[in-house]
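Posting for a labmate who doesn't have an account.
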Amino acid sequence: MSVLVLQGNGAARDHLISSLETHGFEPVRTVSRPSGLATELADRTGLAAILVDLALDEDLAVCRQIRVVDPTIPLLVLFDDESAAQLEGALAAGATGCVPQPLNPLELVAKLRAAIRQQRYRHAPEAEEIAAASDPLTELANDRRFRLDLDRAWRRDWRTRAPISLIVLNIDHFAQFNQFYGRAAGDDCLRRIAGTIKRALYRPDDLAAHRGAGEFAVLLSGTDRAGAAVVAERLRSKVQDLEIPHAASSAGPYVTISLGVATAIPSSDQSFEDVVATAERALSQAKLRGRNQFAALEEVPAAAWLG
């Protein structure tokens, strides 16, 4: 996926480009002055998102220009202490979200991916909106059904002020598993793990979804952080207990999973995409710590959040 970046030359831009490319966003197209943006916007083939440094868009003309050319493309603004006062105006001018500087690469990538998914979800053709709600391979909810249910749960729990928890999980080194054992074995692995996840959820309202490849998610309405942590560890343990051999994994001799947990009380200050982004940041931390474990972020960006 290609990303267009408007940011001045220097170490900050180099760090941003390196962070994006490390996480699979390439090519990264860069513009150092607002005057050069029009040429880049003329050809948006393959462009997934745009990042704009508010320090170069003091009058917010760039944000408005982008929205005139493309009303739907994800647009994130980068801000620091000096430009923070412009955030409200930038969002009113059409920005999708904001990322603080100095950059935290994990936060940047999580917010960027969440914004791209949200754009695809909101603007999908009607035919896709009515597509089957289940994943045929695993018989779990598919990603579209998962997001629809998460949106509904978010709005419902907003009214009741009940906590909502999300667990996102990946099979550790699943691409290497497929390469080593073959696609058929990979599909069988997905089915076994999907069944294990489903059996490990004890409440009828809990929702498990297969989001693609080795990625799954679990929605836990009315569940606080402590309860979500219990479920996450149960899932991790039960998958490990399957003892599916994985000779290509650095996490151990068997197939394992890494999990990210986020919990929030829905409010007007957040959206359901924020809880997805927070859970994915936690998942990245679990992987960095060695995999085969879950992580829940200790710091979250609003008083409404519980972890």
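Reply:
Got it, the structure tokens are right above this. The first strand starts at residue 2 and ends at 6.
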